[in-house]
Amino acid sequence: MVKCLLTIAYDGTRFGGWQRQANRTSVQEELERAFTVIFGGTVSVEGAGRTDAGVHAFGQAAHAVLPRPLRSGSLLLALNGNLPPDVAVRSVREVPDDFHARFCARGKRYVYRCVVSRVRPAVGRGYYHWVKRPLDLAAMTAAGRHLLGRHDFAAFASNPGYERKHGTVRTLQHLHLCRRPWGFDLAVQGNGFLYNMVRAIAGTLLEVGAGRRSPAAVAEVLASRDRRRAGATAPACGLYLLAVLYPRVRATAPALAPADADNIDDVDDDEPA
Fold it and tell me: Burial level of 119, CB count in 10 A (0-12/13-18/19+)?
């Protein structure tokens, strides 16, 4: 038995999300189907976390326990040959038996992409959020500074049952607004994210940019711990999971040496995912 770590990219447009479910196709289901074809039996794939319907990924992470070893290049080709065009495994590497894609994660990076234009864009509508009017990015940046650090992010989360059980305190390490010729990207990194947290932050900052809130009001929203005080949840189509962050993981054997290990980053071990 061999445990491997996968880095996965996907276009989330047609999926019900990452996690397998009864009524909609999921990315997890497609990967498990590909493994079944390769090995002739059931292989369970465990992700680092869920992404919602319509959310995309460049660097989702997942682990699987294989019934027998395959060289990295062979397994990479076999998986991608049995996956649909909107899912691709970017890298495969062997990891220790005690590695877990979710519980060993120490952080994640996301980007939320917006196109700002008076005219509705005709191409790529499923890959960004369209904003009709110009935004004050300086005000949005000032507002975002209130969210940096360790806080209770209950006002930016949308799953009360999970939150009561697991808590709502997280550490937001980075938040950047990056201007683009067509609009901007909102890039964030944290030690963990609550359900809809990135999209709720994006929706709130968009209201600041439109002049409907002041930057200082975001601090009040955060302190309130009340989801009703924050902005609307921004559409899923603009959100991308860029990377899942782990402490440095050393391959246990050369047979599965990484083809592309850009999701393995050194991070502080004292920040739980």
Answer: exposed
CA gap 233, 215 in Å, rounded? 18
Pairing state between β 56-66 and 239-245: parallel
Ranges of CATH 3.30.70.580 domains, the chain: 2-104+247-256
Residue stretches of the chain with pLDDT short of 70: 160-164, 249-273
Give me the active site residues, please: 52
Q: Give the C-alpha separation, 26 to 119, whole Å.
A: 33
Domain 2-104+247-256 is of which CATH architecture? 2-Layer Sandwich (3.30)
To 10 degrees, the CA torsion angle through 206, 208, 212, 213?
A: 140
CA distance 68 to 82: 18
List the one residue out of 39, 61, 37 whose CA is nearest residue 49: 61
pTM score, two decimals?
0.89
Task: Record the tokens describing residue 16, joined without a space.
Answer: 């019900």
